[in-house]
């Protein structure tokens, strides 16, 4: 109530909340054991990549040690990390998925 300045109370405007949510990169780590085909499958199934892009990203992780699968809001990134790690464990692969703030 900005028109009533004399009521002795703290006046707070009701502002629309239009904040852009912070983003997180979901990353895959290289290891010596997970088959390349499995990593490509993960990138296609869980990160909606074409086989060509998934192969490129997989080889980049293989040579650089880490690679970005995608950038998401916190809740989506956390869910991707859990699902990918569960999927890898179910298939007895040590593939590790993690996330970091952009
Ligand atoms: N380095 C693995 C191999 O040689 C392949 C691999 C790629 C594993 C990417 C994990 O995130 C990864 N079979």
From TrEMBL:
Keywords of this entry: Hydrolase, Protease
Pfam families reported in the protein's UniProt record: ClpS
Residue ranges constituting the Adaptor protein ClpS core domain according to the UniProt record: 20-98
UniProt key word Membrane: no
Gene3D superfamilies for the chain: 3.30.1390.10
GO biological process: protein catabolic process; proteolysis
Ranges in coiled-coil conformation: none
PANTHER family: ATP-DEPENDENT CLP PROTEASE ADAPTER PROTEIN CLPS (PTHR33473:SF19), ATP-DEPENDENT CLP PROTEASE ADAPTER PROTEIN CLPS1, CHLOROPLASTIC (PTHR33473)
Function summary: Involved in the modulation of the specificity of the ClpAP-mediated ATP-dependent protein degradation.
Binding partners and assembly: Binds to the N-terminal domain of the chaperone ClpA.
Name of the molecule in the record: ATP-dependent Clp protease adapter protein ClpS
């Amino acid at each position: 109530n900005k028109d009533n300045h004399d009521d002795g109370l703290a006046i707070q405007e009701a502002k629309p909340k239009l904040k852009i949510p912070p983003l997180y990169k979901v990353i895959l780590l290289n290891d010596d054991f997970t088959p390349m085909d499995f990593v490509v499958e993960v990138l296609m199934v869980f990160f909606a990549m074409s086989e060509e892009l998934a192969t490129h990203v997989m080889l980049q992780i293989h040579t650089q040690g880490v690679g970005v699968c995608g950038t998401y809001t916190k809740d989506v990134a956390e869910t991707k990390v859990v699902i990918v790690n569960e999927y890898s464990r179910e298939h007895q692969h040590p593939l590790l998925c993690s996330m970091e703030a952009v």
